[in-house]
Structure formats: C-alpha cells, structure tokens
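Tokens in:
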C-alpha cells in the first residue's frame, strides 16, 4: 500500500520528466542564437521571464561567448582596445 507522500513524490518526478523536453527545446534555440522573444512565441509563454526559466545556457556556450570578447585581432567596439596576447592585457588601438 502506498502512502500520500510516495504518491506526491512520484507525481513530482513525472512532472519533472515531462518538462525536460521543453527545457531542452528552449535551451537549444537560445544557444543557436534565436532571440528570447521568438523562443517565447514558439513555447507559447505569456512572459519572457517564463521563457528565461526554460532557456538554460550550457557552460561551454557561456565560455565561447566570453572568448569572443577577448579574441585577439579586431578592435572591441565597446572598449576601443586590442587584447595583447603576449601579456593578456588590453592595449589601446592606434588611431590613424
């Protein structure tokens, strides 16, 4: 015979399993560069906040995003600096 807490526990696990595909769907769209407004519409959420709860970014995706900022070469639009890879310090771009 099962008690009330076992039934609640099983119900909670089933609810978590049902939501996994939605989390994966939202996360994969977000990591593919789809804007949250579009993800929200595809998931039929009323608010962006709810979509943000579903769209988790993988740690490697976050790392790749940060690496874009410190990639040597082109001038950062926001800072106007290059990253000097020999010292790992930013240096001002030469104005010409």
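Residues out:
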């Amino acid at each position: 015979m099962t008690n009330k807490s076992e039934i609640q526990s099983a119900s909670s696990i089933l609810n978590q399993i049902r939501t996994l595909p939605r989390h994966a769907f939202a996360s994969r769209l977000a990591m593919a560069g789809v804007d949250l407004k579009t993800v929200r519409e595809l998931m039929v959420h009323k608010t962006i906040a709810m979509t943000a709860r579903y769209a988790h970014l993988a740690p490697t995706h976050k790392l790749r995003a940060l690496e874009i900022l410190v990639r040597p070469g082109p001038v950062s639009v926001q800072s106007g600096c290059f990253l000097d890879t020999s010292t790992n310090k930013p240096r001002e771009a030469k104005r010409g």
